[in-house]
Request: fold
Amino acid sequence: MKLPGSLIVALFLTGCASTQLIPFSPSQDYAVSVSSNLFDAVRIDNNDITLFNDGKALGFIRVKPIPSDAPSTSEFINTLKSASGAESVETQTPGIYPGFTGFSAEVRNYQTGYLIKEENPSSILIFSFPEGTFEDVAKTISSGI
Reply:
């Protein structure tokens, strides 16, 4: 009778493992949250965050300045779409991340998003994660913390 009780306690404890969204803010304009069960190490450099799992890069979050000679935000986005060299998918969907404009491109089972904050278009958020993780990460994008 002790074995089933121990088994129930073990199942209960494993079911209670905590998974949290960990927020990363590579600049004051952007914040992105990633589930804590997806990564076990983080490398942080100037406006560049790389997440690792078992020693392998899982994905990255970075912010780059928009060139001062860019004619407009929409033209800059169109130039990036052309340069991505991949079939691009429009990601601006109401309710996912209002206040941002951009797109994503899929290359070799990874999806990379390019987003610009409409209110302050001086930098671009670039983030890349495996296909199955990308949308979950994209839904968490907000203004920086």
Observations:
- The two ends are 52 Å apart (CA to CA).
- Helices lie at 2-15, 73-84, 131-138.
- The mean pLDDT is 80.
